[in-house]
Amino acid sequence: MVGSLIHLLKWGARHTRDGIERSLSPSDFREINDRVYAPSWIRSNSPKCYVRVEPRPDDEYFAVRRSLQTKKDLYPIFTHSNGEQSVSIAPPEEFNRVDAEIVDIINADAILLEAIFTHPNGQTSEKSVEYNIQDAPLHEGNTLPVSISVSEPAIEAHITLRKEISNDVGSLFVLPEKIRQYDWKANQNPQLSLPVPRGQDGTPIFLISVDTFRYDALDKFEPVLELLGDDAVIPSEPRTQGHWTRPAHASMFTGVHPGVHGYVGTGSENKGQYGIHPDLVTIPEILSDNMYKCSGCVTKDKTGVEYGFGRGMHRYAYKPISWNNSNYDGADIVDQVIQWLDRDHEENSKRLFYFLHLFDPHYPYLPTVSSKISPVDFDTLETLNSYRSVDNYLEVIENPPKMSDDEINLIKSYYYQSVSYAANQINRLINYLKHIGLYSESFLIITGDHGEDFLEREFAGHNSVTDANIRPGMIIKPPDDTDINIPDEADIIDFLPTIAELVGEDPPKQSDGVAWQNTSKADMPRITERVRPDWYTISLEKDSVKAVYTYNDNYPEYPTKSQVENGPIDVRYYDTSSRVSGEPLNNTCPPQYLVKEIEDLIENHISTHRAILSSTPNEEVQTSGEVEQRLKHLGYK
């Protein structure tokens, strides 16, 4: 078995793509030959959604449109009996330019886009742009980016798309549904995507998620920190509210804990995998309502549009990477965003939002071949992988797996090289922002979605609420001339309220996090949830004590009232006043008064958020005066 594996690795020890070499896992070779490029999110049983264009192999791209059926729908698009499409827009502010994309144009010969602009004085002006498809500069997935502008500010615009088609495939046009559904439908005839009126001025915002980025890997981001210089802020005690990719990213996008947004499943379970709660507002939705052009580019389907991450986005690209293939990596994500920036950047309009998800540091932590770590010890990696899946959290605590220090150090050397590779890609993006003059006014959030356990305690992978897993690396570059004060106690649920206030909006009532503008978090408890089918585990930190309570589960929801009243199954306390590599040093029993405060905080967290789920998340949840007073005393509100 080992001999055949060595032969296989010698046969294909390097995989070269666009000049970048990466190590391969054995399954790469099967995947290269056997992959089927049929996205699972294309389903024919729902006519409600239209987001998809014809993909290139392994590179899925789509433009997004909103529905006619929600209160947040600003720009309904209609198809007339003659096949033309039209849309009228009346954004909240004046504008000079409208961006859009014509998608699924493979069957068209020519495109004509016409616009009638209405100006503040009541006068109108007409503009048009025509494209011969054979000569047009097509981009991802056969899309045609278009812009139409006027010299004088406008308050309204009526846009019409006319097309000449020589090969009409006769597909049925359907009214676009806002990205709140989990079913998707493609349309093969040319269509107009959601128009984006470009607001004046603004702060470019970049949310850059580096998967599996531990706090102690920040030194591998030295090139980024050197480039940012004094502009970089590194919170000393950042936290993620989700212990792995799905719940962590949904908490980033919504500002709420995993038990509220509900995106906690693996995708293979019957419950808990269906995406972000449809009544929650996301960062891109807030920004698109404020005339931001929102784009996302990711390497993993866990952050795909079908799970709610496309809501509010105007375009989204998916360049898959996993432990089964290395056809794409972080370099492709940054390349795509730089291409978008090159098209989007306009001197007078900087309302741009980009979400990047770089997956490179994730298991199997395969470094670039240029790192000279060769050959990769796949047997040791596979041993660690056998400990990464946790079916019973408490059983692992009682019977932790073991590996030698040499084995763990070898795996960590792969991991740190992969983190360095991701850092180098982000460095290219920052350099480009400086090159085009967008750097100083940009808001950059570089964060891990979670960390990673390497058996420092009982766990491997990201199944726990240990510090190694819930204390991610985080680097913030605030925009110039801002009142954003980054706290040491930065949480990923703070991103949404901070961005909302940055663009002049009140944070939605759903927010569990707090805005960083002139807000102190010093006395607030820190909470991370593990919502899994085996147990519900909550980590709460207060007054130099970290408490980890584990309850019987009510997956994917919070434990029931009776489960909480019956008490936790397992309780552990850690002294956080002294740390080694981010881990609490000792099991300890805090003073009884503090134990009582912690118990009250945990019980109130569960009961309050369980009540939120029984109502609409953005409705005010009523609590008694006694509870309000006790929560305030405990520093919880």
Automatic annotation (TrEMBL):
GO molecular-function term, one example from the UniProt record: hydrolase activity
Presence of keyword Hydrolase: yes
SUPFAM superfamilies: Alkaline phosphatase-like
Keywords: Hydrolase
UniProt keyword annotation of Protein transport present: no
Segments forming domain Sulfatase N-terminal: 240-504
Stretches the record annotates as Disordered: 615-637
InterPro entries xrefs: Alkaline_phosphatase_core_sf, GAG_Ulvan_Degrading_Sulfatases, Sulfatase_N
Polar residues composition-biased segments: 615-626
PANTHER family per UniProt: SULFATASE (PTHR43751), SULFATASE N-TERMINAL DOMAIN-CONTAINING PROTEIN (PTHR43751:SF3)
Descriptive protein name: Sulfatase-like hydrolase/transferase
Annotated source species: Natrinema halophilum
